[in-house]
Write a structure and sequence with these properties.
The chain is an alpha+beta fold. The chain has one domain: Alpha-Beta Complex (Ribonuclease Rh, Chain A), CATH 3.90.730. The protein has helices at about 1-20, 40-45, 45-50, 50-55, 90-95, 100-110, 120-130, 150-160, 195-200; strands spanning about 30-40, 65-70, 145-150, 170-175, 175-185, 210. Strands 2-1-5-4 form a 4-stranded antiparallel sheet. The chain has a two-stranded antiparallel sheet with strand order 3-6. The longest helix is centred in the first third of the chain and has 17 residues, at about 1-20.
Length: about 210
Amino acid sequence: MRLALVLICALGMAWGQGREVPRGEAGKFDFYVLSLSWSPQHCATPAGERDRLQCGGARQYDFILHGLWPQYERGWPQFCETGEQLSKAVIDGVLDVMPSVGLIRHEWRKHGVCSGDNAARYFDRARRAFQNVKIPGALRSPKRARTVAPAVIQREFLAANPGVAAEAVTVNCSGRFLQEVRVCLTRDLKTRACSAEVAKQACRLPEIIVQPLR
């Protein structure tokens, strides 16, 4: 019995450590994925209901900045080594577009540390990338649910951002619901075609539901 408990504990420790296994070297990557998260969908989940800042405050959000992720053409770096800790000033400075302290900390720990930037520069770059993308009118603070094909959402983004190729934008879903829109960017934040790996993760459903503001 004691041996079985030891084995279970060892396996649990190995699994926990594996969740944050470092991969890659900071500053060495091929492109970025900008992830725009559909806040109403998050706020419709049990986790969102506990998220007072993003989902329980006076301000209601449509798309928020989920993250700016360094990518390889195949795979991505993560949890790169760093000795830098996030300061309160950096966190406070990005809350208007990324309204979750937990999300900010996670994005820095997993993705930001692999960018080669310090925290202030990384979140400034992420903010600029987010603000460079124009949100289509149909997705600005909708008051009613909408059922639509993912391809329509993609076309709306392309129409709102002239010159961006269809290969640079993917629409991602969680079950039958819009979860996020991803935009692939060069290291200097210009749009580019997504890798096959990123494109493969796009929503394949014929129609999805766009949750309204909550």
